[in-house]
# Entry
Amino acid sequence: MTQISGKRAGAGLQVGHSWSHLHMSNLDEFVTHKLPLPEPVATSAEIQDRQSTFIAYIFRASTPKQARDAHSHVRHVIHTKRPASHEIMAWRCMVLKEGRTGLRGDDDFRVEEGSEDDGEQWAGGHVLKVMRSEAIMDAVVIVSRW
# Structure
């Protein structure tokens, strides 16, 4: 016989209290995160152009990994129920150079930037060009297309 919550459980399982109050609508209540989920700083209105719908998000990202994490969040969490046909992204981050402390000024840092087109030829590069011209730093812009 097995002992559960101080009561014996034999052929019929007896538990010391009722579990009916644990009605779960989904598994989200069990998921824990070490870091907070990415939150967009801004979200555009939907734009309709030539039978496509576009929406853009901008997230804070001080590393390329944070940019990729935000991209993954948009793709796998925000757009779970309505997957976009394309998720274009571009990021720019000011990062500390290897072996530097940041105390010696601007020379201790470098800009890391990049983009992904997700099948839309040159699209990520165009977003990155706008980010450069507007001096946007430590951010990722994600443009979704349906």
User: Anything to note?
Assistant: The domain at 34-145 is CATH 3.30.230.30 (Ribosomal Protein S5; domain 2). The helical segments are 64-78, 123-133.
